[in-house]
Known about the structure:
The complex is a heterodimer of chains A (131) and B (32). Chain A has 131 residues and is an alpha+beta fold. Chain A is 56% helix and 12% strand.
Amino acid sequence: MPLGVHIKENPTAFxxxxxxxxxxxxxxxxxxxxxxxxxxxxxxDEFAAQLLLGLAxxxxxxxxxxxxxxxxxxxxxxxxxxxxxxxxxxxxxVSRYKGTKDHTVLGEVQKTLQxxxxxxxxxxxxxxxxx
Amino acid sequence: MAVSWNKDIDAALSQAKEKHxxxxxxxxxxxx
Lengths: 131, 32
């Protein structure tokens, strides 16, 4: 459901969501709750990856683990070199764990993150999962 | 593919709830 708001035409909406800069894009769930925020310009692929992160977060917060895992995987498949990729790997593993209670997936993704994205903050976040 | 942007925030939120769909809000200051 795309909603376009020009801040000069609708400043109330701009402030309603506590926006402070343009461009800003928000992904809201069906109840209007903000699940993801993108502030500032991004190249096309980075923006697309961020939108998918938002949709994955919506599914995750609805505890639709299979759906969120699939969306995070889509980011990894389509945008493996994006800034969103290591975050997606992290949350894909968490989605799998939440859905299956198989904790081995966390140790596996820690190794993958270390190998593919050694400088990412998400790799550091996964350190406790190392075997 | 052209995107059909809704301009009415309350209408968009209402439709999202009804159709169980997420909402993408794009705040812009760019000239139309």
